[in-house]
What does this fold into?
Amino acid sequence: MIASVDARTKTFTIVGKEKSRAFKITDATKLMKSGNPATMKDVVANEEVRGSYWKAADGNLEAKTVKLGPMTEAEKAVVANKSSRKHKDADAMASPAASVERSPAASASPKP
It folds into this structure.
């Protein structure tokens, strides 16, 4: 959730559990709202936000992508699909010994 916006410096701040972070919008930032291109004017306080960023050499956080507003149904489907695949992969790897088959010769008792 966006806590504050400074249009003059092209930054917005989000409040996290441990600290607040300010993100800089640059000419390279891809701004989207509801799947459509957006501008700095669309970045407002109390708006849901998600995206990606990198840490610049000077320590500032520069936004790469910014998606404003609630997740679209298509985005929710992608997240759900990724989550489902992770759970399936984790279940498959949880017990590798259970999937190992023993050969009859290895389990047979020695002949007298």
